[in-house]
Amino acid sequence: MALKITVIGTGYLGATHAAAMAELGFEVLGLDVVPEKVEMLSQGRVPMYEPGLEELLSRHVAGLEGSSGRLRFTSSWEEVGAFGDVHFVCVNTPQKHGEYACDMSYVDSAFASLAAVAREGSLAVGKSTVPVGSAARLAALLPEGVELAWNPEFLREGFAVNDTLHPDRIVVGVESERAEKLLREVYATPIAEGSPFVVTDFPTAELVKTSANSFLATKISFINAMAEVCEAADGDVVKLAEAIGYDERIGKKFLRAGIGFGGGCLPKDIRAFMARAGELGADQALTFLREVDSINMRRRGHMVELAREALGGGSFLGKRVAVLGATFKPDSDDVRDSPALNVAGQIHLQGGQVTVYDPKGMDNARRLFPTLGYADTALDAVRGADVVLHLTEWREFRELDPAELGAVAGSRVILDGRNALDPVRWREAGWTYRAMGRPAA
Ligand code: UDX
Asked: How far is the CA of 261 from the centre of ligand 1 (A)?
């Protein structure tokens, strides 16, 4: 009989995982402790913007016309316990307030609740990003007969559906052949076709995730450090990235210089990793991540200074600043630790009149920064602006007509914080175009 799967926590990771498992033919029950989320998902709606996710979900949510009916949502732990052969725990591990360490309270409480209801013989599978050593600790909380496995997830926001259905690799940390066999059964579907299946122990599985994210963060900060040097030496970091990227050992990806990385993962993951290494007495091994973090944070301040310079130096008081982009990356409505909003907020705090426009992130941005100005279109944001900052590289912004914007802007100056616009198009339309890590003209 086919395995029955539960997914605990229905954020980006959980909602996508639940829908993907249903797509693969499993009966799936998703649990969230927030009743509004359960209600929304049960109607086939997703509480965030993620391309393709709502379509995938609606194809399977029980009760919707034409759906497979394989996917349901609940707030009841008893239901989850009775239903599941395999329980995927997908709850959030945010950064602790005022500390580097990650907040394990959601994971701990999910495992405590699961431990009370899971059937004998079922398998609990952790997917959340956790400090190394957590799996061993959590395994001890589970009752006799309920085993644990660790199966980190590598999906990117904006590509969540594709990354889940076609993962680069599947990594499982297990302590028994039975757990490995069950997970092979879960992934013995088209999902794993062609994907390497890496079987390892708990600590390695946990570390694969944090080290992968640290590597990605390091790559971005490396190219941003090169951008700083390029600016000092009149070099062009975009050409430099292209040229070093042809070396396959380096690769082209994750070498886009700009205002740096943000979001709910990379920044907090490198900090939690440093905190955990400290606890383990291995802090020296990760001191470089402190530099990765500080190069990254410096980018935001540097963008503020470039904006100040473009306005003639001195104070922002009374200056009108248009900000294109609020989310931490395009194709997402996520504004958690967004470099774009951070820059907008800094300029606002220094007296600038900031007007933000973002294709999908406006509601979340308004909630986080209610005092900033907001416009309904890019054109409205730019109207009368003394300087325009391009801070999240949405396709919509690449397709803007510089001439049309130039007609309404107070002054034709644009700073490209993502090195994503075409300098020639903007300059030909009479704009002063400036990007990070590239010569001024
Ligand atoms: C990341 C990891 O990529 C993913 O594998 C993991 O599961 C979760 O964390 P995500 O946070 O969705 O995914 O975004 P990602 O695409 O990695 O981008 C992170 C940040 O880095 C964004 O702010 C992006 O703008 C920035 N970035 C990315 C750069 O500044 N330059 C680059 O070259 C690439």
From this structure: 6
